[in-house]
Amino acid sequence: MNDVALSVLDLVPVRSGQTSAEAITASLTLAETADRLGYRRFWFAEHHNMPAVASTTPPVLIAAAATRTSRLRLGSGGVMLPNHAPLIVAEQFAALEAIAPGRIDLGLGRAPGSDPVITQLLRGSGTTSDVEQFPRHVQDIAALFTTEGATVRFTSGGEYTVRATPAATGVPEVWLLGSSDYSAQLAASLGLPYVFANHFSGQGLERALDLYRTNYRPSEEHPEPRTFLTVNAVAAPTAEEAEDRALPQLRMMARLRLNQPLVPLETVEQALAAEHDAATDQVVEAARSRWFVGTGETVAADVRAFAARFGVDEVMLSPVAGAYDAEPRDAAPGRTQTLELISAA
Questions:
Q1: Contact 264, 18 (CB under 8 A)
Q2: Are 196 and 181 in contact (CB under 8 A)?
């Protein structure tokens, strides 16, 4: 797909019978595949205390992926900033930039990425995670990356300079992520690139992009607004297989929406054999209508049309293909197949 750049968003899914180690091994192999196929970026999400998601610490996963890839831009999709002190985030990503120069993206989000109990545990170490301070913390991180650093001013009048790393030769690219108008407007006011979480929300995309582009204030680093789109995708040799592989993640989405107990991701066989109920079927049907599921050719065509409709030259795929019982637990054949078939088309 030479006309649309492709990227990957990975939540490191954990399926039934799979360990965290096996899930991460599969994810790193997927990153190698994306690197080989010429994908532009590979971002890891941040979610906590979810039986089906192992992407709890994007910086650790990015560091591991950096040793297994050579061309991909690696990043967070995203770091949930209210959970972390800005200095820690800046130090981690400055170190990643030193490990993989010119290949690091820092995507920042405002949501907690978990339930209220986990949110309190993550924020228990201090007051820096006040969500109302999000705009200032974004600016602080950008300043900490620079060679000049950020200046702390004391009430007594003294000053203290803080840097994320002693002698930076490059800085990560900062992106703002969001699924509402708030982040779109903030990214526009700060002159930052912006990504709408279409793979998760799907509602309000057109309005968010319009707000971002209309209100954009050019910055030195980014004179023009810059954005791409995220989508859930499953590609297989046949449309029937693609639909079957999509079902486990669709049912997991229904559990989230219906506030049901979370479990490891079902295998395809488990999802197909599960009992049906009206509420689950309704959520599954609504989510499926926004996903790109089919053969490589049909999904590629959908991606092209989607990119053209919203005026972007890059689409980030969340490869949500499930696994069959017999497939190896330390690999992700369905997700790998999705990347290969869409790229080839």
A1: yes
A2: no
Would you call the peptide bond into 78 cis, given omega within 30 degrees of 0 as the criterion?
A: yes
Rounded Cα–Cα distance for residues 132 and 115 (Å): 18
CB 101 within 8 A of CB 64: no
Query: What's the 3-state SS for the chain?
Result: CCCCEEEEEECCECECCCCHHHHHHHHHHHHHHHHHHCCCEEEECCCCCCCCECCCCHHHHHHHHHCCCCCCEEEECCEEHHHCCHHHHHHHHHHHHHHCCCCEEEEEECCCCCCHHHHHHHCCCCCCCCHHHHHHHHHHHHHHHCCCCEEEECCCCCEEEECCCCCCCCCCEEEEEECCHHHHHHHHHHCCCEEECCCCCCCCHHHHHHHHHHCCCCCCCCCCCCEEEEEEEEECCCHHHHHHHHHHHHHHHHHHHCCCCCCCECCHHHHHHCCCCHHHHHHHHHHHCCCEEECHHHHHHHHHHHHHHHCCCEEEEEECCCCCCCCCCCCCHHHHHHHHHHHHC
Return d(Cα 149, Cα 165) in angstroms, integer.
9
237 vs 114, residue with greater confidence: 237
The position carrying tokens 């989607």 is 306
Q: Which amino acid is at 334?
A: G
Rounded to an integer, what is the distance from CA 257 to the centroid of its chain?
A: 19
How many angstroms separate the first and last alpha carbons of the chain? 6
The 10s digit of each residue's pLDDT in 89-133 is 999 999 999 999 999 999 999 876 566 676 666 665 544 446 678
